[in-house]
Design goal:
The strands form two sheets. Strands 3, 4, 5, 6, 7 and 8 form a six-stranded mixed beta sheet that branches. Strands 1-2 form a two-stranded antiparallel ribbon. By secondary structure, the protein is α/β, with parallel strands linked by helices. 52% of the residues lie in helices and 10% in strands. It folds into three domains: 9-132, no CATH class; 145-262, Rossmann fold (3-Layer(aba) Sandwich), CATH 3.40.50; 315-324 and 331-480, Serine Threonine Protein Phosphatase 5, Tetratricopeptide repeat (Alpha Horseshoe).
Amino acid sequence: MDSRGEKPASQVTSGDPAATVPREEVLTQLDRVLSSAEFDSAPRSRRFLRHVVDAALSGRGEETSQQAIASKVLDRGTEFDPTTDPAVRMLASRVRRALKSYYLSQGEEDSVEIVLPKGTYLPRFNRPATSPERHDSPGRESPAIWPRILVMPFHNLTGDAACDYLAQGLASELAIELSQYRETEILLGVSEDDPRNREAAAGYEVRGTLTQDGKGLRVSVQVLSVVRRQVVWGQSRSFPATGPERGSFLGDLVSSLAAMIAGECGVVARHMRERLGERISFGHGAYEAVMRYHHFERSLAPAAFGETFEALEQAVARHPDCAPCRGYLARLLGFGYAHGVLPEPSTISRQGELAREGVQLTPFDQRGRTMLAYVLLLNDQVGEARREAVEALALNPDSLLILDGLGYVLTLAGDWELGPALSARAVRLNPFHLPVVHGGLWLDALRRGEYEEARGHASSFMTPASFWGPLMKAVALAHLA
């Protein structure tokens, strides 16, 4: 460290060990990032990123603690408690998302990459790798395990060049939101005639158009099966061309589209399950095991339970670093225990071990943490389940990734304000939400004495071969009588 308390250039890097990033280059890159569209209208995100970068360059790592950030960026006083107030974690999540968006679009060719690793607020300054590994996600299996989705640039068909940025921005934001779903590999295309599109070997393509719709605009999105060259799903939404409500609508739209495409009950999962039912083989690896779990969750057929259990056990053995496989096996064991299929006390301890191992492999994966919260709830560790669920929400509060599951867990854990609110938002924005979310909403309606509402949620609790749906409906009808 020099006399000014600043790190020399050789220390200001955590990327390629053979590369160094001079301080001046980092500051130039910071100005470039902060002037981008991702940060231009987000003053708190700008203050956050400038603060942590300045602290890193000056060797003041202690100023990147939650307490310091709350004080210097959010103007919070000494009463700030990071264990109960997720404000810093939520802001950091937005900054990470904005950085990812920037480097996926206009910053793709930049020579310096500012990274805010999950689990810390101390940034890293990298020389981006030139090999394909630059875009690989750490800790994930080879791309062959998960279905690959190529998001193509959306076409602006409004006739107004001023809408070009909106079409491109929607595609980029959708790719970023899709990347939150761990059971997919997401690529962002550049143009229709780019030869790299074929090299991507994607199983699915997402295409979109932006058109005029009266005085407003309309976005239409399609998902295509690349192998069969057929449209497997489509969705169109209209929204105002101007006005303050447009921004919030577009944010909800992107989250909703991502959930409908890549969620557990989304179009890709359903299409892959159909292929599984047709006996079309796509390997005996992790993704087939995950698909078998989703198939069982929908059918609840006794024979499917055994097949799913065996497939997930084999996947965990063959892919020890596959966190989703451990999480889904934990969830399957939890289902078996809750329904009396696996009544042994050892089932609870085994599912707890699997869920915790999954979180250790990917500590910042929302779905894994939600599964752990569910397991804790089954083990009567209600307080820990609530804390784990709140931590999962703070990782990405704007995503629909696991909103239905989180709402369900929090409601059953007794958070009658946040749990039902999350559940209702999941139902409103994601037509492919998990049916189990209605179980929590049914319980909340009973608590409030809204028995007709409870009957409606019981009817929406579509779980064939399970006694819960009829039982819930009978309880609501008894109260109505």
